[in-house]
Target: Choline transporter-like protein
Amino acid sequence: RCWRSTPRPRAPAVLFQTFNTSNVTKLCPDAQCLFALYGGETTYHKYLIVLQFFNLFMFFWLANFVIALGQVTLAGAFASYYWAFKKPDDLPAFPLFSAFGRALRYHTGSLAFGSLILAIVQVIRVTLEYLDHRLKAADNKFAKFLLSCLKCCFWCLEKFIKFLNRNAYIMIAVYGTNFCTSARNAFFLLMRNIIRVAVLDKVTDFLFFLGKLLIVGSVG
Model:
């Protein structure tokens, strides 16, 4: 009969194509000796997909937390200058470091919660992209249409949450309120000044773009 031999537990993973100590090659010419795995399948290998999914989720969460920390720090530094009655007497010695310390000491939970919401949406988007990749070979028009609609909706939801989070972080830096209260106040403030917000947002985005070009050009 045809059989496959396995290497010894401490032997190196070498693929042997021939059998020198038996006549298996004559009885079964297609027989091969293939290395599979030391010690069999463990619990780690059973939950490998779950662990990688958790790793991806934590990557999104931590990346969004770092971005949120930077946004709150900048907002706190700008607010310390804007709300100073007597400039430069009322300004702190190091406004950027002071804002960074306040963000870490008082607002870490709010930043983590806002980053968590955004990370969940991003993980759902990655899952939809994976499903879309797996369904490319299938000829199911309805499934492709449904996935396209879901991808579009979650893309819009991610953009909206990013915009709302950025303004909520500004409210956190200025007033020191929690994330939910800051997000609610920021939303109603934006709705009351929707046209002014749209114009200022585009102008500031363009100024930031010019600043990035200046920095990259000077470094280059």
Residues 61-198 form one domain. The longest helix spans residues 48-82.
